[in-house]
Amino acid sequence: MIRVRIGLVARGTEAVPIGEIEEMTSEGIRESLTQSGLHVVTERIPGFHSVALGIFFRQGSRDEDVKTNGASHLIEHMLFKGTSKRSSKEILADIERLGGISDGFTAKEITGITIRCLTDSMKPLVALLLEMLGSSTFEAKELRKEKRVIYEEMRSAEEDPQDTVFDRFFEACFAPHPLGYPVIGRRKALSGIGRERLIEVYRKKYTLADSILVAVGNVKEEELIGLLPRRMKLVSGERKVRAQPVENSAPISMVHTRKDLSQVHAVMGTQTVGTNSDERFPLALLATLLGGGMSSRLFSLLREDKGLVYTVSSFLELFEDCGVAGFYFITEKSKLGKVFRAIEQEVSRLKKKGLRAGELDTAKTLTKSSLLLSMESLSHRMARLGHWKLSAQRFRTIPQTLAAFEKVTEDEVLDVARKFFDSKVFHTSFVGPITERDTNPLTRR
Prior knowledge:
The protein is an alpha+beta fold. It is built from 16 helices and twelve strands. It has two domains: 26-226, CATH 3.30.830.10; 253-443, Cytochrome Bc1 Complex, Chain A, domain 1.
């Protein structure tokens, strides 16, 4: 998944001419297919003393079914819970003894295990990372314990209204397709996943064909490849074919009543194109100028002019074959209708009257600045390479990406606005002290 959720971003970075931008001192991105069948990508940046390592799998909640929803997230946890050589405590202790910082994540399309370390510690930590992938035991005792941990994680997520409102929005957009499933999983499905079933999912779906090892920082390609075994303990497999979601043509509204909250969290939006479409560039700029900063249209209108909200933002989230775009805001129940109508009217005004003077240039500068600032993080560069390489689309360098944003025209922005931003077919979700009866006047078309 390529995630470009756009919120309030610090401003002040001046525009940089495209021709003057260098690859952030990078010596270039190199790709190799090793003898073992593992795809390796490196980006050497000599000025650093460290390296960001990550193994990414093209596997997430969209690759699950009703009975296995949450398996990908559970596997991510279990990869840290012990191998044939080390216990879970020994894994964590050995990583930190070598000065490493480990992490794992699961998303709708990708699962990743990452380690940030000094270059001098790369050799033993690469070996440990591969051991976790190839020799994890998935012990029944640890599995039961980790399920309890995830149940606590679920409770935490359920108490977070922002998490809940976006989960409901994805359900409205995609159900019954698995893109509508929560990444963390559901209790009923998780409780039914036993050790044998989990191992079966891991062996079947976590394959060399759908994986990539990425290293960014003070690392040489040949040195990293020299640390890899000739044979990996992962199944070779074939790249999985994913079922394409069918758009829910009729607008769907999801309401989650929370009487303990004083405000309503709301999302309104629609399906869009995915990472393989060039329309993602004008879409990102459209999202930025509507709700991507303190000078954006919706922030200026709803907070600065009308005082109806404290928080309002646009979001754009892209997957391999589709995406979602829309708006998120928090307001009092009594103001919900005013905010809803104000957003509809502002989007309609943009589509009819076009962009204001300088508006597109500001959106381009803000978007490009955000991208360049993110490239100062090795971990971000590593994640970017892993995500984009697994998504099967043509990879763009930083200058190429900036150039793609720069050449977007006002007509292209208006085209995607008219194509995707039709409030009559927006899916919606609400969390707060409200019921469906309260939202029906807003969502019925």
